[in-house]
Amino acid sequence: MQIRQNLADAVGNTPLIRLNGPSEATGCEIYGKAEFLNPGQSVKDRAALWIIRDAMARGQLKPGGTIVEGTAGNTGIGLALVGASMGFRTVIVIPETQSQEKKDMIRLAGAELVEVPAVPYKNPDNYVKYSGRLAEELANTLPEGAIWANQFDNTANREAHIEGTGPEIWAQTDGKVNGFICAIGTGGTLAGVGMALQPRGVKIGLADPGGSAMYSIYRTGEADASGSSITEGIGQGRVTANLEGFTPDFLAKIEDDEALRVTFDLLKHEGLCLGGSSGINVAGAMAMARDMGPGHTIVTVLCDYGTRYQSKVWNPEFLREKGLPVPDWLEKDASDL
Ligand code: PMP
């Protein structure tokens, strides 16, 4: 019998899928780690599980306890679902600008959702800082206690990728992987996979969207967050604790129109319905392939499922409003068949 004991046991061990268009366009083997196949449909289920297990092991999270977190959405979904399967309550603080679909899913998953205005990190009412204060309050008032997951600076997040994602990629490619690239949200995925694979000779790249300072921080040491992006869950303005001790070998700045064209092609030609950060990652993998030259094997992350962004990435009106490309076929409906 092959039985998982609860939902938490179904997190990870995702397939690696050949991205045929990007591979053929570059002469490299480009593979996507299908993180959208996790139970909560995103890579963040991994961090959620490791943060919960770590807090339990430390005795900070006790039966019936509450998990509090500030999140762009996916970590909230992961914590709510994995938390429920292990008997914990979840309270999620989210910037109100995140997609309605993610907010609805967090509520559906049984978490309490607190929406706050999207303000910069240095503002005390920023969603991350707000969630930290709320966790402290609840820890002092709830009889079963509460913890702050603190995904940005809690390195249990990157452990999920040092112990899970990185070694999985190594095993799935029989150690033939030459490069790995993805964007930074908390940095858990990039630094974690980087720490697992860099010592084995794998080149690690950062794919950075507009409006994020990480490209310039690694290039020049100065934080320049110019530009903007519609992608959710990625972009960062500082070296989080998860990023400490890690340095990427290759840097790519990826604009939304390029990433969106890749995202649209992946659905149209390969049946992969993904969110915007996956497009940034695959476009980054193509940039890395061109830099390394043909014949290399490059892995990236397919972070979350596209239905989470039907009102944004997959909505012609939203794209037009933002001056972004809209493929003809996205406008078609059944009457065009
Ligand atoms: N893509 C999406 C859609 C995300 O929600 C996140 C997490 N915020 C990431 C990518 C980045 O992952 P990480 O936090 O591990 O850097």
Automatic annotation (TrEMBL):
<dbReference type="InterPro" id="IPR036052">
    <property type="entry name" value="TrpB-like_PALP_sf"/>
</dbReference>
<feature type="domain" description="Tryptophan synthase beta chain-like PALP">
    <location>
        <begin position="9"/>
        <end position="304"/>
    </location>
</feature>
<protein>
    <submittedName>
        <fullName>Cysteine synthase A</fullName>
        <ecNumber>2.5.1.47</ecNumber>
    </submittedName>
</protein>
<dbReference type="GO" id="GO:0004124">
    <property type="term" value="F:cysteine synthase activity"/>
</dbReference>
<keyword id="KW-0663">Pyridoxal phosphate</keyword>
<keyword id="KW-0808">Transferase</keyword>
<dbReference type="InterPro" id="IPR050214">
    <property type="entry name" value="Cys_Synth/Cystath_Beta-Synth"/>
</dbReference>
<dbReference type="InterPro" id="IPR001926">
    <property type="entry name" value="TrpB-like_PALP"/>
</dbReference>
<dbReference type="InterPro" id="IPR001216">
    <property type="entry name" value="P-phosphate_BS"/>
</dbReference>
<dbReference type="Pfam" id="PF00291">
    <property type="entry name" value="PALP"/>
</dbReference>
